[in-house]
Design goal:
Elements (H helix, E strand, L loop, with lengths): L1 H33 L6 H24 L4 H73 L6 H32 L8 E4 H18 L3 E7 L4 E4 L1 H17 L6 E11 L3 E10 L6 H4 L23 H11 L3 E7 L3 E11 L21 E5 L3 H13 L3 E5 L2 H10 L7 E4 L8 H9 L4 H4 L3 E5 L4 H9 L4 E4 L4 H14 L1
Parallel strand pairs: 2-4, 8-9, 8-10, 10-11, 11-12
Antiparallel strand pairs: 1-3, 4-5, 5-7, 6-7
Helix pairs in contact: 1-2, 1-3, 3-4, 4-8, 5-6, 6-8, 10-11
Length: 489
């Protein structure tokens, strides 16, 4: 009986020691994952060698030896001691990990607080600058004795400052959506060559006003690709506008589009935007794509901007699966290079028209649905100047009632705000589309709203709207949308 008891102690101790070896191997693996322990590698190997020798000793005594009660007790107790020590060491290591995680969270919270303070400081400065111009020039324009030419000049400057303020708001909102993962691409069939031509045309007037020469060179064999034209335009405009901002009079800006390679399904393209501007320091070039970063020099500090444009551009290029690099030298200029692959598509047939289409809005009747009286007055005046006859409704419910009570063909189009009391624009659109009279249910409806994100445009389409006009209203864009919708009707 005694021998059986001793054998059980020896074999139980052996099993426990085998488990200790397994536990130590797992523990040492976790420790190595947690940090760099190359120098301590030999120290980690010593305990495992000792444990293996201890285990072999167990087996030798258990199989070949004649253990007495004292030896069996020492061996069994040693196994329990090793097990408890390993347990305590692992628990201590877990506590250390928990403390490090808490320290990391505290550091992240402090950095977030600093970033928030930095963000608010930047926004306070960058928003107040155009606001100061708007308020200041409005005050000057309202003085007694101001001539028409003076007032006209003030209004032009107010418009310029307003557009700067809108650009700041758009940049902040886009950066927020990117960081929250709500920024997505909407690929469509795009003529890449035409896309870069349009981007250059949009900034040409701005550059010519500073006597900056803009050149464009395209070398592509496969110009039709699948990509998000809006986002590509945004990236190109950010780079071209930056080049114009930081290039002095009589300088030059160039854009080069080059096809690097093309397979059966995919083409590889390179876009280079180069300027002869003030350039950047090497230290700042390394932080160039970090949000809100701006080089703190007397020259740059006079130029309006949030430091978000390049961060947004890089995010767009990254989402497209491309790369963006910069080469710059202080006082000599900057060159951005975008390399990106696009799926190739069959070219669309070009629509040829002999003469420009002079579409007239004269006599067209529109129902303007808007709850804000100031917005209603502005939109009504802009539409009436374009030739529209305008009727108004303060909310979606009134708009549905007016539409249902109208005769066939009375309204040519409905311009619908989205956020309204009583009934919002989405619900009103659904109600109109559900009218029993198919003629009235099919009246074109265009969203005219400050909800201007891509998902807002998609939602407008989903509820049955035929177009989208973003506030603040851009008159050429508004006319283009109205023309497209009314022509399709």
């Amino acid at each position: 009986m005694k021998e059986l008891f001793l054998d059980l102690m020896i074999f139980a101790g052996s099993a426990l020691m085998a488990y200790n070896i397994y536990g130590y191997v797992c523990f040492s693996r976790d420790v190595r994952k947690h940090g760099n322990w190359d120098r301590e590698q030999r120290l980690f190997n010593i305990p495992i060698l000792l444990l293996i020798l201890f285990f072999i000793g167990y087996l030798v005594v258990g199989i070949f030896g004649k253990p007495d009660l004292v030896m069996a007790g020492i061996l069994f107790g040693g196994s329990i001691f090793v097990f408890i020590m390993l347990l305590l060491i692992r628990r201590t290591f877990e506590r250390i990990q928990e403390n490090e995680q808490l320290e990391a969270r505290l550091y992240a919270a402090e950095e977030a607080s600093k970033a928030k303070t930095f963000f608010l400081s930047n926004m306070s400065h960058d928003i107040r600058t155009p606001l100061n111009a708007i308020i200041g020039y409005t005050t000057l324009a309202n003085r007694e004795g101001v001539t028409f030419d003076e007032k006209s000049g003030y209004v032009d400057k107010i418009e310029m400052a307003s557009r700067q303020l809108l650009d700041i708001v758009n940049d902040v909102l886009d950066m927020s959506r990117i960081e929250n993962g709500k920024f997505s691409l909407e690929p469509t069939r795009v003529d890449l060559e035409n896309c870069v031509h349009e981007a250059c045309d949009l900034v040409r007037t701005q550059l010519e006003s500073k006597k900056i020469n803009l050149s464009l060179d395209c070398d592509v064999s496969h110009k039709w690709v699948m990509c998000d034209k809006v986002m590509l335009d945004r990236a190109l405009m950010n780079l071209l506008c930056n080049a114009g901002k930081f290039t002095e009079e009589n300088g030059s800006v160039s854009l080069q589009l080059k096809e690097l390679a093309a397979g059966d399904e995919t083409g590889s393209y390179e876009i280079r935007i180069k300027d002869t501007g003030i350039g950047m320091s090497e230290e700042f070039a390394e932080r160039l794509f970090i949000p809100f970063e701006r080089e703190r020099t007397s020259t740059v500090s006079k130029i309006q901007g949030t430091g978000l444009g390049l961060a947004i551009t890089k995010s767009i290029v990254d989402m497209m699966g491309g790369d963006i690099n910069v080469r710059t030298e202080k006082g000599k200029g900057t060159e951005f290079t975008i390399t990106v692959d696009f799926p190739l598509v069959e070219p669309e047939e070009e629509i040829r028209s002999g003469e420009a289409d002079d579409f007239s809005f004269e006599g067209k009747r529109a129902l303007l649905v808007e709850d804000n009286m100031i917005n209603m007055e502005i939109a009504q005046m802009l539409l009436e100047q374009s030739g529209f006859l305008i009727e108004t409704a303060e909310n979606g419910e009134i708009a549905v009632e007016m539409t249902e009570a109208s005769e066939h063909g009375y309204y040519d189009v409905i311009l619908m705000d989205v956020q309204m009391p009583v009934m919002d624009g989405y619900a009103a659109t659904k109600a109109i589309r559900d009218l029993s009279d198919p003629e009235l249910a099919g009246i074109p409806i265009i969203a005219m709203t400050a909800n201007a994100f891509q998902e807002d445009i998609k939602k407008a389409e989903e509820v049955g709207m035929n177009g989208h006009i973003a506030k603040p209203i851009d008159i050429p864009s508004m006319k283009a949308t109205l023309q497209q919708v009314l022509k399709n009707r």
